[in-house]
Amino acid sequence: MSKSDISSLFDRLESHFVGFGPAFREFQFPSNNYPPHNIIQSEDNQFILELAVAGFKKHEITVKELQGELIVIGTKDESQKDAPEHYQFRGIGRRSFEKTFKMAEFVEIVDAKLEDGILSITLMKNIPQKAQHKLIAIK
């Protein structure tokens, strides 16, 4: 399915869902898939975002939240790269990246850890009592 097909689909959806137009238009396709990632639902309200960041050290990765978005930035110092003649084959990516994920309302970042080349970010959906469904008794 091409981007124009998706755009056409959003146009049709927008005509049937009042007030969702901006949400449909905010949907963005990633310009690249580096680094690859997984999203795991570990519990009803808990998710783990895993990013494959082989070759990155903790001090080269930044995880931040800004206006409902989770932003992961990996920065490689280009001047620190080894000379190409030292590699017979280079298949592990060493380029810097910035990857953004839109977070749903009430989703909070719980923690982040880097282990065995995988950055794991735990997210929790904490719906406040006043925003939860309320059962109304009928008299």
Which helices and strands occur, and which strands form pairs?
Blueprint: H1 3-14, H2 21-26, E1 37-43, E2 46-52, E3 61-66, E4 69-74, E5 97-102, E6 107-115, E7 118-125
Antiparallel strand pairs: 1-2, 2-7, 3-4, 4-5, 6-7
First-last Cα distance: 52 Å
Could you say what the CATH architecture of the largest domain is? Answer: Sandwich
The helix/strand class is: mainly beta
Strand content: 35-45%
Query: Helix fraction?
Result: 10-25%
Query: How many domains, as an integer?
Result: 2
- What's the tally of helices? 2
Question: Overall 3D geometry?
Answer: extended
Major beta sheet, strand line-up: 1-2-7-6
- The secondary-structure element order is HHEEEEEEE
| Assembly classification | single chain
Largest sheet, described in full? 4 strands, antiparallel
pLDDT averaged residue by residue: 81
